[in-house]
């Protein structure tokens, strides 16, 4: 589930954090779902448990995870600001693609309206 690049300049705990957030965004991890234990994940990734603990603690401080004593670490979900930030990133990428394809902003808005209407009709 987790892929760690030991050759990356990005610290391992940041890679873990980023992947957890992406799993939540993608719906792979759901609110109130229990995460793999620190020890188990560290063993799977062949890394120090303190590295996993740091990732979990930072995500907890950001309000994305929560801990229940003697039960484990659970997904709280993404705060609204993180969800909006994720959408903004996707929109920027979509706009870049539209520029390459010479699709105007107005055309893109019309496509979004059409798809939104189709989504409601389903």
Automatic annotation (TrEMBL):
<dbReference type="GO" id="GO:0003700">
    <property type="term" value="F:DNA-binding transcription factor activity"/>
</dbReference>
<keyword id="KW-0238">DNA-binding</keyword>
<protein>
    <submittedName>
        <fullName>GntR family transcriptional regulator</fullName>
    </submittedName>
</protein>
<keyword id="KW-0804">Transcription</keyword>
<keyword id="KW-0805">Transcription regulation</keyword>
<dbReference type="InterPro" id="IPR036390">
    <property type="entry name" value="WH_DNA-bd_sf"/>
</dbReference>
<dbReference type="GO" id="GO:0003677">
    <property type="term" value="F:DNA binding"/>
</dbReference>
<feature type="domain" description="HTH gntR-type">
    <location>
        <begin position="10"/>
        <end position="78"/>
    </location>
</feature>
<dbReference type="InterPro" id="IPR000524">
    <property type="entry name" value="Tscrpt_reg_HTH_GntR"/>
</dbReference>
<dbReference type="InterPro" id="IPR036388">
    <property type="entry name" value="WH-like_DNA-bd_sf"/>
</dbReference>
<dbReference type="Pfam" id="PF00392">
    <property type="entry name" value="GntR"/>
</dbReference>
């Amino acid at each position: 589930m987790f892929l760690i690049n030991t050759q990356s300049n990005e610290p391992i705990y940041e890679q873990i954090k980023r992947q957890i957030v992406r799993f939540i965004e993608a719906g792979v991890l759901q609110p109130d779902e229990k995460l793999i234990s620190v020890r188990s994940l560290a063993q799977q990734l062949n890394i120090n448990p303190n590295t996993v603990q740091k990732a979990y603690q930072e995500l907890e401080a950001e309000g994305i995870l929560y801990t229940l004593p003697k039960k484990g670490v659970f997904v709280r979900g993404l705060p609204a600001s993180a969800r909006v930030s994720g959408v903004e990133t996707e929109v920027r990428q979509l706009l870049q693609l539209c520029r390459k394809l010479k699709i105007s902003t107005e055309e893109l808005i019309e496509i979004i309206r059409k798809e939104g209407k189709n989504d409601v009709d389903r």
